Amino acid sequence: xxxxxxxxxxxxxxxxxxxxxxxxxxxxxxxxxxxxxxxxxxxxxxxxxxxxxxxxxxxxxxxxxxxxxxxxxxxxxxxxxxxxxxxxxxxxxxxxxxxxxxxxxxxxxxxxxxxxxxxxxxxxxxxxxxxxxxxxxxxxxxxxxxxxxxxxxxxxxxxxxxxxxxxxxxxxxxxxxxxxxxxxxxxxxxxxxxxxxxxxxxxxxxxxxxxxxxxxxxxxxxxxxxxxxxxxxxxxxxxxxxxxxxxxx
Length: 249
Hints:
single chain, alpha+beta, Glutaredoxin, 11% strand, elongated, disordered N terminus, Thioredoxin-like fold domain-containing protein
């Protein structure tokens, strides 16, 4: 039956009932799907959280490995060493070591005497380093090249009570090394400074400071903290023993 129009546009009752039923059905369907999607969203794993947890687990494993290495090298029991590594004071010491060289690469070295101060970046060969030391000690005409002039503040270039030193504390020359234990160039340069101390035991003091480049070596801070704990728990010799072992690995 054709409905009466009466000059107005409208929807007859049966049609309205059908449309209403369709709208309700669609609403229920989308509502159910929305609930399912929400449940799925709630159940979906948080990838960022998983990554953080995975990284945390990796660091815990590394701490355990470092503590085992420390026990082997220094005799410090693992549980004592792990407790030390969890003490934030050592992480703060590592961070404080590099506060003036945060933008520099490694190894970064300052060679200082009463008369001269120069900076050297990179793993220079022994012949070059020993030549510089000889000139600083014996050559009255020695001039610091412009490229080697120091830019660090004077207060940074003193031996602090928290520093680790090889050689004579009264030596006329002090080498401040900022180093990353995982850095391949630091690994290459480490034996050079060891040899320099052996050759100049009364003339050179080697001050080791941490400068972990975490964007390149994400466990370098833990390695640095481990050496600090070795020193804190068993003294300077233990610090250098563990450092020598880790940086040669």
